[in-house]
Amino acid sequence: MLSVKVHNLQLKNPVMTASGTFGYGEEFADFIDLNRLGGFVVKGTTGSHREGNPYPRMVETPSGMLNSVGLQNGGVEKFCSEVYHRIKHLDTNIIVNVSGSSIEEYCSVAEQIDALEKVPAIELNISCPNVKCGGMGFGTSPDMAAQVVAAVRKVYHKTLIVKLSPNVTSIAEIAKAVEGAGADSVSLINTLLGMAIDIERRRPCMANVTGGLSGPAVKPVAVRMVWQVAHAVKIPVVGLGGICTAEDAIEFLMAGATAIEVGTANFIDPAVTVKIIDGMEAWCKKHGVNDINEIIGII
Amino acid sequence: MKEIHDFRIIERTEPTANYVRLVLHHGGTMQPIAPGQFVEVRVDGVPEVMLRRPISIHDVDSDAGTLSLLIQVVGHGTRQMSTLKVGDKMNIVYPLGHGFSTDIAAGSQVLLVGGGAGIAPLLYLAKVLQAKGVHPTILLGGRTAALIPTRELFEPCGEVCLATDDGSLGHKGLVVEHPVFAQQWDMIYTCGPTPMMKAVARSAAERGIRCEVSLENMMACGVGACLCCVTDTDDGHRCVCKEGPVFDISTMHKWYENK
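Output (structure tokens, whole complex):
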């Protein structure tokens, strides 16, 4: 009833988790059966180890939060040699979020992940707002986005999902550019660039000054962008941005998303993903929907 | 194993102004908890609050299936917690983080140094140490007497020494200026304001005393997934929620030397 397909990626249900909010899955194993997920997207992985930005890295804002972690991770070699072997037995889709500061770095990471048998897809992160070089720089110009995607396409042979930035004038144009460059799917939205000030201390709340806004506050923006992109491209769309409930997830599907990712909500309820899956199934039964694909993109 | 559970409040006291102490009953079998671990509390019905709030575990009674929290009211989240009544439910994720080391030989000379709300996790630590045949000395500090909550609960666990900035109780001055602090110890545990913990850590390091500090950084996930709460350590950024909140100062030179 809930199974969907994102290019060659067969998902038992449309629910995945958003990179940077779910660690390597292991952190949530006490709370949920990871095998119930359609898939999960692991922490942004770069060519070498990164320490990320200085603390403080987050601040809560109305119905959301800003973060400026800055892609802290152990690097692709550590992922392949250590983390991968701890999680590869899982019966769900493990998707690696691939990040970098140069086209060469993106390609090198993608190539190394391509060799991992139990990773059927990557999510190419051309939209991180919290790193000085690369990240969002690649995702805010259609030409740059197409260049990096085309280069990665040459070395990566499985499902290539490209994660888009909402910090652009026309996200549909970027989506079309990456589709033309060989992307199999797009996921959106990454966080919205934001800022908060501690007025008592007269200082920015975060050491990096600006950060990415996530949580329910961004949901209507994300739904609008998913709808725009779904009408602009032929490849499947993965929707994310503030999803907390099954109803939120269904809203994204109706807007045109084939699958969804749950992010910030994992912090509020570490078992939320399974509740969303159960809730979607209950919704389908209640509304006489025999196949979730019937409601995808009906708007 | 970590779990998400609705606890019920069975006791509520206000030990001193701006603090509330809640005793929570599990109702089933509670997970094992180590001293220094913490919970993440869901705050219901407050529009300003979306994320859970990390709160130290103040005390544990495994047989009774209860844990207690000592909450200082500082913002929207803790204010809501302070309005909860006996019988109300509290949804918490627990036990989180890496707690204090308790592999201490019986009869060791151990000092616990707490400041303000930072005294919270030291109560359960004192009880666990006492059960291991260690009789800790407990040094508690605050700006005034009124800001050292639940000090009487520590009395059965060891010798309690006090320090206040205004001299309203115990030694007048900082905890690190208290004569007992200058004694030689086998181990010092500390939790409290960052400048206090750094002063304790620097002194312990100079004197070659093993020391653990319990940090309190702003957190989101509480389980090591989001990497928001990191502290500087000699090994790079480490999550306070997962690799901490308790760190041995042997890996924290970079942290305590940065005043």
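Chain B has a mean pLDDT of 96.
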